[in-house]
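Objective 1.3, modelling of assemblies. Example input:
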Amino acid sequence: MASLNNKNLEEQIAEYAVKYKENYYRLAYSYVKNADDALDIVQESIYKAISSASSLKNPDYIKTWLYRIVVNTSLDFLRKPKKNVAFDEEILESHDFETVDTYGNFDLQKALDNLPEKYRTVVILRYFEDLKIDEIAEILNENFNTIKTRLYKSLEKLGIKLSYYEEV
Amino acid sequence: MEDISLQVLKKQYLDTPIPKELDSRVEKAIKDGIAYRRKKKRILKRISIAAASIVVSAALLTIGVNSSPAFASALSKVPIVGGIVKVLTFREYSVDEERFKADIKVPQIEGLENKELENSLNEKYIAENKKLYEEFMAEMDKIREDEGGNLGVDSGYIVKTDTDRILSIGRYVVSVAASASTIFKYDTIDKKEGILITLPSLFKDDSYIDIISENIKSQMTERMEADEDLIYWVKTDGAEEDIGAFDKISANQNFYISEEGKLVISFDEYEVAPGYMGVQEFVIPTEVIADILVSNEYIK
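Predicted structure (tokens):
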């Protein structure tokens, strides 16, 4: 009767996946900018996470581990040559709609979109996903200071100046 | 973060429209991932089962997941009580809280002449369900300490067959945590002789394993050809060796004998097909096994 006592790793991962699915979706979307691909990425990431659950030794890392898989899957996706570039009209429209709805911050949004991927990722994870620097370091497999420096650079590139007493 | 422009960017980010399909895609990913893991585990387990098959117990185990409509209707089948041999609910455990539900019914067989068999089955049922209940309570305490989650368990039994001769009892456990899972076990008893019928005991030798397996594989292929939504993990002609594809039933594969006297082989969910396919049953045509049956007492 194995079913009850193994509230095991795979189930814990599944719980996280369900709880944070929208976060993963938004993150994936920020890379690929279209709903179909973002859905594919989320699905593939969660599948990967669960099917390779045994490679995660410590359940405390589920949160950052899942983010890491989503980031890597998104990057893989961008690197892959696109099989089909035909755009669905709906997607185009939703895109149009968004660019209109920018509260006059069109340039800033554009600047963010134009940031090199590694700078953009830290901004998203830090300020939009509200992750801590050390969590981001785990997700991106970099050390703490690298992430901190990268974050300052990103803000600089965006022309965002934090008040001198503010910490990234 | 104080900076106004970052706040605006964040708001835009959080306003990313979430497609309705997200839920179903996440669910599918979880199911497929778990299916993959179960399959991997099962391959390892099969090896150990083969080694341990000397310990012949007629308690055969089926694992299934998710309460499909077909499964639910099977469960609602009211136990039929025939002859003097009866199956009763001996005891019921229940928990009914907002996030925690348990309903565990322990079956008890009565009226068998072979008291030793009757007692050993009943003791087994009690022990299993007690363990299940204890596991549930422990899990519940654990979840309570952590922040959230739901837990449910529903366990009971159905009488699959009750003729003058044969009694097949299926016991199930449906547990719900992050995903649902079901365990199914069958016991088949010869009421007249007071013996437990095991799969090997039905046949003259162990050639039944291959004969039944071949029949099941061709049934799988037929079903898949008839309906393209069905998937069985079966090696198809010309395909490369598929790790984990269904090869053979185990010597003590889960089975029961139907009212019509047909041998029905049952598979765990994930054992031979993806989880969404549910528990799988195959009725073995009697003519396929006629030559190797010990007698036609049970299988007709």
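Confidence is low (pLDDT under 50) at residues 44-83 of chain B.
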